[in-house]
Amino acid sequence: MMVSENYNNVPHAYYHDLESVLYVLCWLCTAQEGPNSTPRSRDFHFEESEIARWAGIGIDDPNLDGIRRAKTTIMKDDIEFGAVILDNFAPYFQPLRECVESMRKLLIFRGEYTPEDREETNTIIQQWRLNVGEKIPAKLLSMVPLCDRVAKEVFESLYSIIDKTLDELEKTDAMSPGPILTSTVEGAGMESLSVQQEGQQVKVRHIMERSMAYKGQKVIEELKKKEDEKEIELHTIEEEASGLEDASEATHPFHKSWASSNLKNSPQNDTEAASNSGTLIPSLISTGEKRPNSPADESELRSTSSSKKRRCDWEP
Predict the structure, then answer these.
(1) Where are the alpha helices (DSSP H) in the chain?
(2) Which residues contact 247 (CB under 8 A, 6 or more apart)?
(3) How far apart are CA 33 and CA 23, in angstroms?
(4) Rounded to an integer, what distance in angstroms lies between the CA atom of residue 293 and that of residue 244?
(5) What is the DSSP letter of 128?
(6) Which regions are flagged for Polar residues bias (predicted)?
(7) Residue 111: phi, psi to the nearest 5?
(8) Residue 159: CB partners within 8 Å, gap ≥ 6?
(9) Is it the case that residue 215 has pLDDT exceeding 90?
């Protein structure tokens, strides 16, 4: 949602994208405590911040026109922007305050631009180009609406802001590992860390520790989840294998013949065995096969002999 030229009939231009970059920076510095998407500390209520309201968060009935008007008012007011936007930056991102403020002054046109203003400003810029020969200062460039600026000059001013910020951050990083030389009342030099710098280092360490702990917890949860899935899979395989084994025992031919043999050899089936012995013995004789003596064979022979003896007793 652009502040400059936010009407639908305005064609999209390069400076609209640059303005979006500015809003993304404001969002990141407010919504996160530090790098690696570290969430803000609990003592900061993001949903109550002005940045959150720009996204419709914390508003009962978000209205685009109302949000746009509130956003425009804040972006064009130096004091208001510092109080509700820059002051809500996380401590880790406070070194970017000046960078964001300079980008706002460059990319947000805050004045009224009458035809007289346009003519006067253009005259000043032309004289600067001819007489000075250097790039136009951002302060002078900000007096002109972005639609009337030369794109190259806008990008040159933006690059200068970024380069200056990077240089300052590098100097801060170079100073942070070592102690700072301070003077005592007696004038003797001593090496000690300033309270402010030490506090910033502690906050950064806490941020990194929370980030590492969060990532470690995620890894542990993923490993535990995989172990549970493997255990469930193994349990399922064991149940399926057990079911197949039970079904195989109930239908296998060996088990059927074994059960039939037990039924034949049981005492209650002696009569049935005796009636079938006449067909079993001749088949063995006709084929000439000989099988080893077994309890079942001896029972059949005794049954056959007993049957023949009874028939002989009955014959006259």
Answers:
(1) 14-31, 50-54, 64-75, 78-84, 97-107, 115-127, 138-141, 151-175, 195-251, 253-265, 270-287, 295-314
(2) none
(3) 17
(4) 36
(5) I
(6) 258-286
(7) -110, 180
(8) none
(9) no
State if pTM tops 0.85: no
Whole-Å CA distances, 65 to 49, 68, 71, 72: 19, 5, 10, 11
Q: Give the DSSP H/E element, type plus range, for residue 192.
A: strand 189-192
Cβ–Cβ under 8 Å, residues 165 and 114? no
If DSSP codes are grouped into helix, strand and coil, which group holds residue 180?
strand
Q: Which residue has the tokens 């000989």?
A: 290
Determine the Cα–Cα distance for residues 43 and 40; give it in Å rounded to an integer.
Answer: 8
Give the model confidence (pLDDT) of 88-114 as tens digits. 999 999 999 999 999 999 998 876 667
Helix (H, G, I), strand (E, B) or coil at 197: helix
Name 180's bridge partners.
Answer: 192
The three-state secondary structure class of 42 is coil
